[in-house]
Amino acid sequence: MVDIFDEVNEELRAEKAKNLLLRFGGLIIAVCVLLVAATASWQAWRWWQARQDFAAATKYIAAMSQAEAGPLAGAVDQSPSAAAFESLVADAPEGYRTLARLRAAALRAQQGDLPAALSLWDQVAADKSVDPLIRDLASLLWAERQLEAGDPALLEARLKPLTAPDNAWRAMAREQLALLDLRQGRTDAARTSFRALADDVTAPGGVRGRSSAMLGRLGG
User: Which of 5, 18, 39, 193 has the most CB within a 10 Å radius?
Assistant: First the structure.
């Protein structure tokens, strides 16, 4: 009797499976096809991304070599090197795009083309896809190049957020704000800031040394 019931159960299960397969077989096949297509697409995308990264790396290295070879060859005009980096901005992956902007900005500033350099630093600072550490560095460089003639209110607005305790660039931002105070005739405020920086053991050695030197020039 047990064997008969087992056979009946097996027949019922087989019939149920057959009915389910007839009912949902097309859907199962479609899902399998989609999974295979998705895997193939992912592999193709990875191949395409690797190719883009390799192309960007090749162009970046070429631009770096051009920038380094120029001064060695006695070239004064670095505009072609800056243009080579700027050409990467349009279609390079994010990391190379950011590095290219920063390098091009440095070359433009070196050439005396400050508006172009400021524009590139501003682009990096405003790009939400860039790491906050790099964005803050771009803001710092943007402000540093305008300390002598830039709008004090605008410079303060860009520098003060960088003085937060957890910001990696806080000491250099505080130094620039002290120099901005000095430029505006706020000597006492500048002296106080330089003294705090000179005594700050967490500040980089260069910042502490320059702050001590400024204190000496300001009479302590």
Answer: 193
